[in-house]
Amino acid sequence: MRRPHFVSAGAAAIVLASLLSSTTLAAQEHAHTPGMTHPAPVQLPTQGGQATFAAIAEIVAMLQADANTDWSKVNIERLRLHLVDMDLVTLRSRVVYTPVAGGAQFLVRGTGDAIAAIKRMTGAHATMVMNSGGPRVVRTELPDGVRLVVTAADTNDAAALAKLRGLGFIGLMTAGDHHAAHHMALARGDAMDDHGH
After folding, report:
1. Measuring CA to CA, how many Å separate 152 from each of 72, 173, 179, 191?
2. Is residue 148 part of a domain?
3. Were both Cys, which of 68, 81, 88, 144 would link to 117 (CB 3.0–4.6 Å)?
């Protein structure tokens, strides 16, 4: 008389896994037929890393996609240096705000590399702000930064004055839609007035 054969739980699991594996392989080797669906691919992130890196990557992709890009003039390092300046001014400067008649005064100071960054960024930006019909900016260089006296185009316009003071130094630096075009021009190697890079 044959004795019953008992299989351990571990052995049974191995057999079951083997069967499932061969079934999975067989299923993967099928032909596509109309109406079949597959799981959606994993979505990739939209950011290419740290913000400065991502900004550069975006512009590089745009330049590569443009058949008219003159690669003999392109200077991505110039853009990188400008973005470093932006970081230094945004995160490493000290700003003292004082209201003045018709506007505000900003003493923007730093140490080390931030000093030159403050001078470059405010020099380029003050010109752009005034050329775009924005508030009037009087810029004076200091040993460790700059003094900016910013007055509303119409000093009797209470709403414009409140907005100017509410934006403060960094808000005024970010105002306007010229930044993207400015960065592309830097990357393309275009001549830039009042720019240190």
Report:
1. 42, 15, 21, 30
2. yes
3. 88
Instruction: Identify the domain containing residue 174 by its residue range.
Output: 51-188
What's the predicted TM-score (pTM) here?
Answer: 0.71
Q: Is 155 inside a domain boundary?
A: yes
DSSP notation for 44-93 = PPS--SSHHHHHHHHHHHHHHH-TT--TTT--HHHHHHHHHHHHHHHHH-
For residue 25, is it left (φ>0), alpha (ψ between -120 and 50) or beta? Answer: alpha
- Going by C-alpha positions, the residue among 158, 191, 188, 169 that lies closest to residue 71 is 188
Tens of each residue's pLDDT in the chain, 197 residues = 555 444 444 444 444 444 444 444 444 455 666 666 666 677 877 767 789 999 999 999 999 999 999 999 999 999 999 999 999 999 999 999 999 999 999 999 999 999 999 999 998 777 777 667 778 999 999 999 999 999 998 989 999 999 999 999 999 988 876 778 878 888 898 886 555 56
Q: Is 134 part of any domain?
A: yes
State the angle between helix axes of 76-92 and 179-188 in degrees (0 to 180), rounded to the nearest 10: 140
In a domain, 23, yes or no: no
Q: Which of 173, 185, 115 has its CA nearest to residue 145?
A: 115
Cβ atoms of 83 and 52 within 8 Å: the answer is: yes
Q: Which residue has the tokens 């306007």?
A: 176
